[in-house]
Amino acid sequence: MTTHGLQGIGMTSQRTRARMIERLREKGIRSAAVLQAMAAVPRHVFVEEALASRAYEDTALPLGMGQTISQPYIVARMIELLLNGRPGLGKTLEIGAGCGYQAAVLAQLSKDVYAVERIAPLLEKAKANMRVLQQFNVRLKHADGHFGLPEAGPFDSIIVAAAGSAIPPDLLRQLAPGGRMVLPVGGQEQYLCLVEHTPNGFTETRLDPVRFVPLLSGTQ
Ligand code: SAH
C-alpha cells in the first residue's frame, strides 16, 4: 500500500468534497461542527490510489486486509450522536481505526484521540496517513479493542467501528461520568447503540439498523 499526497486532481477537488457535505446534509446530518469536521478531512488520502476518484462517494470502500473504510454518512451520524451539542468530544477513544479516516474526523472535534486497531498493517497505514495530514493529536495503538485503553481512560467519548454481540464491559468502565458511547451491536442484524453515563447509571438507546464488519478477538 502506498501513501498518496494531499494534492488532488479532478474528482478529489474541493468541489467534489463540497458535494459530499451537501449529501450528508440531505441525509439528515444537522450539526455544523460535524459537517465542518467532515469537510476538513481529505478522504482520498485514506483510500487505495485506484479508488481515489470514488473517495467522496457516500459508500464504504475496501481498504485492504478484508476491511472497509466506513461510509461518510455513518461516520457523520455516529459522531453527531456522540457530540450531541457538547462543545467538543473531549478525550476520545475509537475502537477499529482501520487506516484512520474516522480518527482524523474525530481529531477535528477533540484535543486527544486514542485509536485502537487489531490488524498491524492497517495500524501502520493509519500512522502514515496521520503524518501526511500532520494530524498529531491522534495516538494509535495496536491492540484488541475489547479491553479499551485503561491506561489512557476514562474517556468522554467512545466510538466503535466494528460490531460485537454485546457492549464490551471494559468500554463501559472507561466511559467517564457524562460521557457518551456509540457502537454497533449484533450479528446478522445490527443496530447502533447509544450509551450515556448519567448520574443514575448507564442508559442504552437502540437506534438505526446498520451493517459493520465484526468486532474480532485478539490481534494480527
Ligand atoms: N474507522 C475505520 C473503519 C475501519 S473498519 C474508518 O474510518 O474507515 C473496522 C476496523 O475494526 C477494521 O480495521 C478491523 O480490523 C477493526 N477491528 C475489528 N475488531 C477489532 C478489535 N477487537 N479491536 C480493534 N480493532 C478491531
UniProtKB/TrEMBL annotation:
Keywords: Cytoplasm, Methyltransferase, S-adenosyl-L-methionine, Transferase
GO process annotations (BP): methylation; protein repair
Active site: S70
GO cellular component, one term: cytoplasm
Reactions listed under catalytic activity: [protein]-L-isoaspartate + S-adenosyl-L-methionine = [protein]-L-isoaspartate alpha-methyl ester + S-adenosyl-L-homocysteine
Subcellular location: Cytoplasm
Chief location bin: cytoplasm
CDD domains listed in its UniProt record: AdoMet_MTases
Cross-referenced InterPro entries: PCMT, SAM-dependent_MTases_sf
EC number: 2.1.1.77
EC category name: transferase
Family of this protein: Belongs to the methyltransferase superfamily. L-isoaspartyl/D-aspartyl protein methyltransferase family.
Role of this protein: Catalyzes the methyl esterification of L-isoaspartyl residues in peptides and proteins that result from spontaneous decomposition of normal L-aspartyl and L-asparaginyl residues. It plays a role in the repair and/or degradation of damaged proteins.
Protein name from the UniProt record: Protein-L-isoaspartate O-methyltransferase
Lineage: Bacteria, Pseudomonadati, Pseudomonadota, Betaproteobacteria, Rhodocyclales
